[in-house]
Amino acid sequence: MKAKTLLVLGTSSDAGKSSVVTAICKILSEKYKVAPFKAQNMSLNSWVSKDGKEISFAQVIQAWAAGAEPVPEMNPVVLKPKGDSTSQVIVLGEHYADRSAGNYYESIDEMFTILNRALLKLDENYNVIVMEGAGGAAEINLYDRDIVNIGTARLTKAPIILVGDIERGGVFASLYGTVMLLPEDVKKNVKGFVINKFRGDPTILKPGLDQLEKMTGIPVLGVMPYFKLRIPSEDSMSFHEKAGSGTIPDEKKGCGQKTGLNIAVIQLPKISHFNDFEVLESQALVRYVSPGDDLKNNGICPDLIILPGSGTPLLDLTVLKESGMMNQILELREKFNCPIIGVGEGYQFLGKTLTDSHGNVFFGFNLLDCETVYEKEEGYSEKPVRITVTVGASDKTDLGPILKQISGIRLEGFFAHSGKTKTVSPIFGDDGALGAGGLVIGTSMHGLFDNKPFRVALLKYLASRKGISYVEEEAFTVQDGFAELAAVFEKNVDMKAIYKIMELE
User: Fold this and answer.
1) How much is the pLDDT for 11?
2) Would you place residue 206 in the very low, low, confident or very high pLDDT band (cuts 50, 70, 90)?
3) Of 112, 124, 298, 443, whose CB has the highest number of CB atoms within 10 Å?
4) Which residues are catalytic?
5) Long-range contacts of range 358-362, CB-CB < 8 Å, 24 or more positions apart?
């Protein structure tokens, strides 16, 4: 390969590999044409390119940090779990097959070929490729079929940085143990350690760092402090960090934790495209509520309930019913006239019925006049497509207090849903439905809240209903978040050493 490469591996899942790759992509993009890469990602949080190709949102974030247009080659294989030990396999942005874990590994040679082709394509267009592994690098039972860690390392022979999460405890053992378990041809390419999520004075660690370097011959490049990342979340592993998120510290600005808006997002077991709602976190207190938990916040009804997309809609609908969450939502709707928005499969839940591919009928919330039919097995997503729609009802239906503010406005987003939903009176082109005088809104379109006209109309209405003022905050942009992360990384990690490791000027 002509491009300079770096492979970032971890001692475990959620060690911080993605944030390290994102930071390095941002820093190197000041001098080089940089592409992120991850051979395979298991995620229900995907993104759709302009030409309708599907890619994991994690690599989209990294591409944005690098100032690059996200392309499927940056994440050639995406596995979208369906809940029955089967995943939908997306290859280079297109649906490839539904495979169980065993059947998938039978095709691993073909996946290696696809991986190689994707890397060669990136090599043609970029000076630098920063690659990410998956989970823990030392999965010794998977070495013969691991395309993400060992496979990528062997194919590219890239220098490796190993990331360990000190918050989990045992970081020295995990770094040392991972290195010792790596195959010899991969171990020799490990050029540095990064310790992540440290709380406290890093000088306390120095004796341990010195011993680790002496025992392995590998330098510790830096210790990253624990801090709240203000970049989009890559997957549902981040939910444990979202407790109490979404507050504006200055209560005088109208929307803070104590005096502002309280939005509840239902955290479905197989929630998908959850980044749909992250834009709201700077404007309100956004709570991710698991089925079975109390929807009320300290006894107070939320100002808005959001039902998100799902990778296993019929299973998640059953969970909503059996956990009592469906009854909670309906009770708050009836007693407090609580507004509800459903997106993707969440929209389907709000309808009358959902019928599976075998003709079995499941009853929804019956809050919207729509019905959904799944022509294929549960979890299969239709080919995603980017769309632009105009707000307005085809039959002159009253749009209600939220949408009437933006009647005729064009909104952008994408469809990536399962099933076919029919509605009597669509509100976004030929999609979506309204109920309860415009206070129950459903749409198949992801990215709805990223449209400022809709977001402002919604939050202004919720604020006025609550008797508080609302002013759209000047947005803290995604690029601001990347710059913040890069600054922290450069302050705490030896970037000069990384340049040297990568043989960059």
Assistant:
1) 96
2) very high
3) 443
4) 446
5) 362/314, 362/317, 362/318
